[in-house]
Design goal:
By secondary structure, the chain is of the alpha/beta class. It has a single domain, classed as Rossmann fold. Helix content is 36%, strand content 17%. The longest helix is centred in the middle third of the chain and has 18 residues. 45% of the residues are buried.
Length: 315
């Protein structure tokens, strides 16, 4: 029997999109960090087809990426969309996890995909997922290129604050250091203490005016996480990538939404400027999260255009 929450994703989509998704999408399970991760697969029949692993952000899950996944699949990509531990349809405590564990999830899914497919392998992450995919690649995920929709550094308290309602206070001299010390102290004493997720992020600003219908539906979605532990919060600024941005060597496309009112686009821009390696940058005229046919067309064209310029692995 299907639980009502398992089908809620359909409320975001038209009937024809749902039908196309159900005709293509398959389920897989990948074991990682001691739990079973549920993974959505949009597979090509050719195992040598390029593979794009799409990773959700803190307020999302795999099934919110159906429309771009279908369009990328139509263009010849195998799309792999995992749910991280405790999120979406995956197992695990729905409030207690760390950045390091989520990075390990992505590494494990990428290794699983490398064993299953022989084509080029790419990682895409949005919002918090942008930093997760960079950290995963820096931790040894066997990928050929990255796409970061936003770009955040989990080694900096400033980026952690920028993701929250306290972004403006981060500009006050000494506030970042004070918050870092406070969170370290509290998380050491009561690491499992839950904090409402909505009290941390300004989710009302997640979309621009064109996507208010999506936000109204998202507010009632039973799947997005609603609280996180102090252990998680501490990890958002104490988990630097093993390879700093400045020493990156992978091809990376950074996509920066200029209408983002949830997290300042300046954060992504500044982190992009730190990147070494063969990188590219694109700005899009949308909010932190976006939906709709025009967005999907522009977004997929950016992603596909960047990836088709990369050398292709053929076996």
């Amino acid at each position: 029997m299907t639980h009502p929450r398992d089908a809620y994703w359909k409320t975001y989509l038209d009937a024809d999109v749902i039908a196309r998704c159900e005709a293509v999408r398959r389920d897989a399970i990948v074991e990682s960090t001691g739990v079973a991760l549920q993974v959505d697969l949009y597979e090509q029949t050719d195992p040598k087809a390029p593979v794009l692993i799409v990773n959700h952000g803190g307020g999302g899950y795999s099934r919110l990426f159906v429309e771009p996944a279908l369009e990328l699949h139509r263009r010849g990509y195998t799309v792999v969309a995992p749910n991280q531990r405790g999120q979406g349809y995956s197992a695990g405590d729905r409030e207690d996890f760390t950045i390091g564990e989520l990075v390990e999830n992505i590494v494990d899914v990428t290794i699983w995909a490398r064993l299953r497919y022989s084509g080029s392998l790419y990682l895409l992450g949005g919002s918090i997922g942008s930093g997760l995919v960079y950290n995963a690649a820096a931790s040894g995920a066997p990928v050929d290129a990255l796409i970061c929709h936003n770009l955040y550094d989990f080694g900096r308290i400033g980026d952690s604050l920028a993701l929250s309602r306290f972004a403006a206070l981060g500009r006050v001299p000494g506030f970042s250091a004070m918050m870092a010390a406070l969170l370290k102290g509290l998380s050491a004493v009561m690491p499992g203490q839950r904090v409402p997720f909505g009290a941390l992020g300004n989710f009302k600003a997640m979309v621009d005016d064109r996507d208010q219908r999506f936000f109204a539906l998202w507010r009632n979605d039973p799947l997005p996480i609603r609280a996180v532990t102090l252990r998680y919060l501490r990890s958002t600024f104490t988990t630097p990538a093993r390879i700093p941005f400045e020493r990156n060597m992978l091809p990376i496309l950074v996509i920066n939404p200029t209408r983002d009112r949830m997290v300042s686009p300046a954060v992504t821009r500044q982190n992009f400027l730190r990147l070494g390696g063969p990188v590219a940058y694109a700005e899009i005229d949308y909010g932190h999260w976006a939906t709709g046919a025009a967005f999907v067309a522009e977004y997929v064209a950016l992603v596909d255009g960047f990836l088709t310029r990369q050398p292709r692995r053929t076996g």
